[in-house]
Amino acid sequence: MSNNEKASILIIYTGGTIGMREDPVTKTLAPMKFGMLLDEIPELNKLGYSISSITFNPPIDSSNMTPAIWAQLAKTIQKNYTKYDGFVILHGTDTMSYTASALSYMFENLDKAVVMTGSQLPIGILRTDGKENIITAVQIAAAKRDGRSIVPEVCIYFDSQLFRGNRTTKKDSAQFSAFASHNYPALAKAGVDIVYNYERINYPKNKGVLKINTAIDDRVIILKIFPGLNRHYFESILQLQDLRGVVLESYGSGNMPTSPWLVAAIKKASKRGLILMNVSQCPGGKVLMGHYETSIELQKAGVISGKDSTVEAAVTKLMFMLGQNLSHEETKYYLSNNLKGEIEM
Question: Which of 17, 93, 128, 310 is catalytic?
């Protein structure tokens, strides 16, 4: 970006801890108006950017995040896409990885940065991590190289690290390093300088007008496998009326008990048209279907390997693909393949 060109950034404030302040009477945290939040960060003025904002009214706690709000965010960015060089979404940490994953699937031809961030401490608290997170997120959103955005992806910036959004999971509620990307390296690290990992960033192969696809089918569920899993409950869930997809959180590299009833229930559900994805409970590593005897039967039953996907990326991908009105086999094909850098093939 030339010295006389002023970067324009749109900040979308959805809510979350970063915009909270303590009520002097009740001592509880409640959302503040966005203008008040910006007053807490006068350093933004020193960047020399043109910064605009859109505020959710009322701001929401991220625990109340829904697919409808994902669609609202995608449409907001599409509507303002040609006006700004980059976008920053302020979001609560609890469901940030879900939102980042969902948005990554919704965008086609994205060639500008969409950087999500938030904080563990409210912006008005002296030791807040929010100031640095916002300032650096804005800098990353504005950063260009050879006339194009350096990181044209949906990302999460937190505690000096920039991650691909659909590779993240919230790992800690008490430390400033709230997020981790166990199976994919950071796209950038912020120290004295912001150092970008260019080889790991996805750049759009085809230039075109930004398109969004917000179709979602929420008839899915996550089932975690554990010792002592109750047969009646498990079978009942797989038989739920209108259920279309299940993310199975298995052990290790994709293993589950070989109990005849469990395998039979999965086979029956698969034959009925239910789509089942197998992801690991382990933060790192990946599912290797058929590698151990305990996962061979799942493979035979048509269960899809989630490979090294996070649970957040898997469940939002399942919801997205089921919303596309594809054939059963087409849906399974796309679920098995990399769409937006969420899995290694």
Answer: 17
- pLDDT tens across 272-313, in order? 999 999 999 999 999 988 777 767 888 888 899 999 999 999
pTM above 0.90, yes or no: yes
Residues 6+ apart with CB under 8 A from 334: 321, 324, 326
Catalytic (active site) residue 17:
yes
Closest Cα to residue 13, out of 95, 100, 88?
A: 88
pLDDT reported for residue 3? 41
Q: How many CB atoms lie within 10 A of CB 258?
A: 13
Per the prediction, the chain carries an average pLDDT of 91
Beta-carbon contacts of 329 under 8 Å, excluding residues fewer than 6 positions away, are none
State the Rg of the chain over Cα: 21
On whether the CB atoms of residues 101 and 342 are closer than 8 A, the answer is: yes
Instruction: Give the separation between CA 19 and CA 4, rounded to whole angstroms.
Output: 32
What is the four-CA torsion angle of 159, 163, 168, 170, rounded to 10 degrees?
10
Copy the structure tokens of residue 284.
Answer: 């790192």
* Whole-number Å distance between alpha carbons of 78 and 108: 11
The tens digit of pLDDT for each residue in 209-234 reads: 999 999 999 999 999 999 999 999 99
CB 276 within 8 A of CB 305: no
> For 336, phi and psi rounded to 5 degrees?
-80, -10
